[in-house]
């Protein structure tokens, strides 16, 4: 094994060791030029020494001993961070090579790598599963998505030069599983989780094999064998406390024995009762990353995406969305919860509990600053941070004059949802009426993904509620969440926001502000929502300095920059503000 090292502060390009990780022994070795490690003979953990046979690059240095024993400074050899790469970052062999280079370009980092399935593999596995239910056992091989998955992974193995043996068992297992689904003509939530796990199991095996092939020791881990212990809520499982000591014991134990880069499957866990493979909800690899960060008490968690960080709104809705440099855990959690696809809704919880900073970076553009998410940030200039849109939401207006002046109305309403296991999103209430929204995606865990089942369930809820109140069911609504500093600037944001909505002729159907003072949610019709986001974005982020919040005690005419880095004009091709 050839690896370059840095001694006496002279840097070489190697990754195996650098001057920080090697302390000079009592002999006071004092090389002044780079040397190359030819052979790592012996690593003795007990007395923390490393015997390295070195060949000096410059001839005169060969006069010195070619074998030396170095004392290891163990604190410098700790795992330092998590680097999580999503499906878009590892979509092909070429992308995996770029990701490997990216990881290795930080020689001082000792990362735990968390990977998602390649590209759209999870979606393809789910479609293949649905097709298997009704295609008949003999027709499994006609499922296009299966052929695509096989072809993608085999091609990637070839292009990475690692051979297909690392994924052969999984490809075979996948076909057998689809056969089983075809035979049973059913796809339970438990089987669905097992089915999608093949995506992460294969991407991590390919990637770890590639790192090993290029000379960087790596070790693949399946999260469900490594200590990520979850509830048995298939397709939407929650990480349990027992995970933290288990993951720490396993990863740190292995790391002390051998410094092999851990490459862990994101998204997956093991149900604590069933011992079956579970998944953490779509986009769950972010949660795996922060869970590992907390378990090991690492310096930071990096989530590498295909965008320059968390943006001021969804770039698919409005391409003038801009990166937000700094967020608090609270802001990021609200943003994710209210539908910003960029982060898993629960991923901020472990980070916040462990106070581990999270950095959102772009694997396609590593030099971009990205977004740093921490417990607190300077809020003195913060007004609006981001606008989030959640479409296709169902809203209920529930009114009961009978309950005027009586206690328990709200509790009766909410207990109806509790009994039916339905989660409520946004709530606004007066004494005898309550408006609330329900998100169809929350029904996924109840095997109610199909629209028909969803409507059936909603009708059932309405019937129950009509026992105590008049219910008005309103579908095809959107929640627009304004994430910002409402503690300081709520009147300013509302005044400005309402002006934008009024000039655009948009009628708000409900408003709610959470106790966290981080977000205000507005409910509008689905067909007005995108236009609404563009208009708000344009007004808050693109109109220069004059619309900023005046400071208390100053003249209202004194301008403050709304966002210093967003002094751009609205794009009139995208938006026509009346
Ligand atoms: N506010 C937002 N900021 C950044 N990206 C967003 C936002 N809202 C939606 N997105 C979308 O989220 C995508 C990144 O999330 P995701 O697809 O889960 O990434 P990955 O698969 O790489 O983990 C972006 O490509 C972007 O289209
Ligand atoms: N592969 C899973 C888990 C995940 O986190 O993916 P991504 O990092 O690509 O969002 C999914 O598609 O949901």
Could you give a short description of this structure?
A hairpin with a 5-residue loop joins β11 (268-271) and β12 (277-279). Strands 8-10-7-6-13-15-16-14 form an 8-stranded mixed beta sheet, with helices on both faces. Strands 18-19-17-20-22-21 form a 6-stranded antiparallel beta sheet. It has a 5-stranded antiparallel beta sheet with strand order 1-3-4-5-2, with no helix packed on it. The protein has 578 residues and is an alpha/beta fold.
Question: What does the secondary structure layout of this molecule look like, with pairings?
Answer:
Elements (H helix, E strand, L loop, with lengths): L2 E3 L16 E2 L11 E10 L4 E8 L10 E6 L8 E5 L7 H12 L6 E5 L5 H15 L8 H17 L4 H20 L4 H25 L4 E4 L1 H4 L2 E2 L12 H15 L3 E5 L2 E4 L5 E3 L5 H12 L3 E6 L20 E3 H9 L10 H7 L3 E5 L8 E4 L9 E16 L9 H11 L4 E6 L3 E6 L12 H15 L4 E15 L1 H18 L6 E4 L5 E7 H16 L37
Parallel strand pairs: 6-7, 6-13, 7-10, 8-10, 9-11, 13-15, 14-16
Antiparallel strand pairs: 1-3, 2-5, 3-4, 4-5, 11-12, 15-16, 17-19, 17-20, 18-19, 20-22, 21-22
Helix pairs in contact: 1-3, 2-3, 2-4, 2-5, 3-4, 3-5, 4-5, 7-8, 8-10, 9-10, 13-14
Bound molecules: adenosine-5'-diphosphate (ADP) and aspartyl phosphate.
What does this 3D model show about the protein?
By secondary structure, the chain is of the alpha/beta class. Among the domains are: 3-77, no CATH class; 81-118 and 193-306, 3-Layer(aba) Sandwich (Carbamate kinase), CATH 3.40.1160; 390-525, 2-Layer Sandwich (VC0802-like). The protein has 14 helices and 22 strands. The chain has helices spanning 93-104, 121-135, 144-160, 165-184, 189-213, 223-226, 243-257, 285-296, 329-337, 348-354, 409-419, 451-465, 486-503, 526-541, and strands at 3-5, 22-23, 35-44, 49-56, 67-72, 81-85, 111-115, 218-221, 229-230, 261-265, 268-271, 277-279, 300-305, 326-328, 358-362, 371-374, 384-399, 424-429, 433-438, 470-484, 510-513, 519-525. The protein has an eight-stranded mixed β-sheet, sandwiched between helices. A six-stranded antiparallel β-sheet has the order 18-19-17-20-22-21. Helix 2 crosses helix 5 and helix 7 (243-257) packs across helix 8 (285-296). The longest helix has 25 residues, at 189-213. The chain is globular and about 70 Å long. Residues 1-76, 444-449 and 545-578 have low confidence and may be disordered. Adenosine-5'-diphosphate binds next to loops. Aspartyl phosphate (PHD) is lined by residues 86-87, 116-117, 122, 199, 266-267, 282-285.
């Amino acid at each position: 094994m050839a690896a370059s090292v840095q001694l006496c502060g002279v840097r070489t390009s190697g990754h195996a060791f650098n001057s920080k990780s090697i302390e000079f022994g009592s002999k006071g070795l004092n090389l002044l030029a780079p040397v190359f490690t030819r052979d790592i003979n012996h690593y003795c953990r007990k007395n923390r020494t490393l015997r390295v046979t070195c060949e000096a690059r410059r001839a005169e240095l060969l006069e010195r001993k070619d074998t030396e024993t170095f004392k290891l400074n163990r604190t410098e050899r700790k795992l330092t961070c998590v680097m999580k790469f999503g499906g878009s970052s590892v979509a092909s062999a070429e992308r995996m090579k770029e990701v490997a280079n990216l990881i290795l370009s930080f020689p001082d980092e000792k990362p735990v790598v968390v990977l998602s399935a390649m590209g759209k593999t999870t979606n393809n596995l789910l479609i293949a599963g649905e097709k298997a239910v009704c295609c008949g056992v003999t027709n499994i091989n006609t499922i296009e998505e299966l052929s695509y998955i096989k072809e993608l992974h085999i091609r990637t193995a070839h292009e990475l030069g690692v051979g297909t043996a690392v994924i052969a068992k999984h490809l075979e297992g996948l076909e057998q599983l689809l056969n089983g689904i075809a035979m049973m003509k059913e796809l339970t939530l438990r089987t669905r989780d097992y089915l999608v796990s093949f995506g992460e199991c294969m991407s991590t095996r390919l990637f770890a094999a590639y790192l090993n092939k290029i000379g960087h020791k790596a070790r693949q881990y399946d999260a469900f064998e490594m200590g990520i212990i979850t509830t048995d809520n298939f397709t939407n499982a929650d990480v349990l406390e027992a995970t933290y000591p288990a993951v720490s014991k396993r990863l740190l134990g292995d790391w002390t024995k051998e410094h092999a880069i851990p490459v862990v499957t994101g998204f997956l866990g093991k149900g604590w009762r069933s011992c079956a493979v579970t998944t953490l909800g779509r986009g769950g690899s972010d949660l795996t990353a922060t869970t590992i960060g907390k378990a090991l008490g690492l310096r930071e968690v990096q989530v590498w995406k295909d965008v320059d960080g968390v943006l001021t709104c969804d770039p698919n809705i409005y391409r003038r969305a801009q990166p937000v440099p700094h967020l608090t855990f609270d802001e990021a959690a609200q943003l994710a919860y209210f539908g910003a696809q960029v982060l898993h809704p629960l991923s901020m919880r472990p980070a916040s509990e462990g106070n581990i900073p999270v950095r959102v970076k772009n694997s396609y553009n590593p030099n971009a600053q990205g977004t740093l998410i921490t417990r607190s940030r300077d809020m003195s200039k913060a007004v609006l941070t981001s606008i989030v849109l959640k479409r296709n939401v169902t809203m209920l207006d529930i009114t009961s004059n009978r309950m005027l002046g009586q206690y328990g109305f709200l509790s009766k309403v909410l207990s109806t949802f509790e009994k039916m296991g339905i989660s409520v999103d946004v709530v606004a209430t007066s004494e005898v009426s309550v408006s609330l929204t329900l998100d169809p995606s929350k029904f996924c865990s109840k095997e109610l993904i199909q629209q028909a089942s969803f409507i059936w369930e909603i009708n059932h809820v309405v019937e129950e509620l009509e026992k105590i109140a008049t219910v008005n069911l309103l579908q095809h609504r959107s929640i627009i969440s304004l994430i910002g500093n409402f503690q300081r600037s709520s009147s300013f944001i509302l005044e400005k926001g309402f002006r934008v909505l009024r000039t655009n002729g948009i009628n708000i159907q409900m408003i709610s502000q959470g106790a966290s003072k981080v977000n205000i949610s507005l409910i509008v019709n689905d067909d007005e929502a995108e236009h609404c986001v563009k208009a708000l974005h344009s007004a808050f982020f693109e109109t220069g300095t004059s619309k900023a919040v005046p400071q208390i005690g100053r003249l209202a005419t004194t301008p403050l920059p709304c966002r210093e880095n967003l002094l751009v004009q609205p794009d009139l091709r995208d938006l026509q503000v009346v």
